[in-house]
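Quick check before the chapter quiz. The format below is the same one you will see on the exam, so make sure you can read both the input and the output lines.
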Amino acid sequence: MTEAARSGRLEGRHVLITGAGSGLGLAAARLFAREGAKLALLDRDPAGLAIAAKETGGHPFELDVTDEAAVNAAVAAAAAAMGGLDGVVNSAGIMCGDKLAETSLETWQRVLAVNMTGPFLVCRAAVPFLARRAGSSIVNIASAQALLPGIAGGAYSASKAGVMMMTKSLAIELAPGIRANAVCPGAATTPMGNAALAAMNEATRASFAKRYAIGRLSEPEEVAAALLFLIADEASSITGIALAVDGGRTYH
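Here is the expected output.
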């Protein structure tokens, strides 16, 4: 996306982003700020959150998305700080590469708590504020693994499939006033994506990009562009979709 294409598409918008301290959440925060949005930035990492707030001018809120009371308080505080809320991007998430038969109950519960219950809590807390402003939009980050799982990481795939179906349910329940969509990224060059690659053996890593039709991993900014489109007014007739931004992984 060129600088000329960045033309204030989010001027007047008030958007809350979870997982804003790194990865896809940070890429979205940077792009949304350039497009004129007021931002509330939520993350459990204070260092990453401070950097994101400094770069984007967003209001920082240190938060564990699995804490119901903390989520309710942070969403209300974010809406108050921005003077309203009309956009939510749920980006906070964790990875698990274990095969299901080797996944501990503790790991299973933690992955679902962060990846699926967290977005549920944020959306639930945000809906009363979103309903007060026209054109409000929710975008939840699911995963290409919600569409086509790999040979491991079953807990992660299950959690992201849950996010996708939760989003479709929200689209039905909240229409016509609030839109809800999901983005399903493939592997991207984020800290989480890079860590997953580093954990692979050399042979697996060498063949990994061949799973993608474009022959490479996505850049965070490419996923952020999809998030921007679905939050912005030009997607005003789109709700309930799961948009694959995966370099062709799910069909290649």
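If your answer matched, good. The mean pLDDT is 92.
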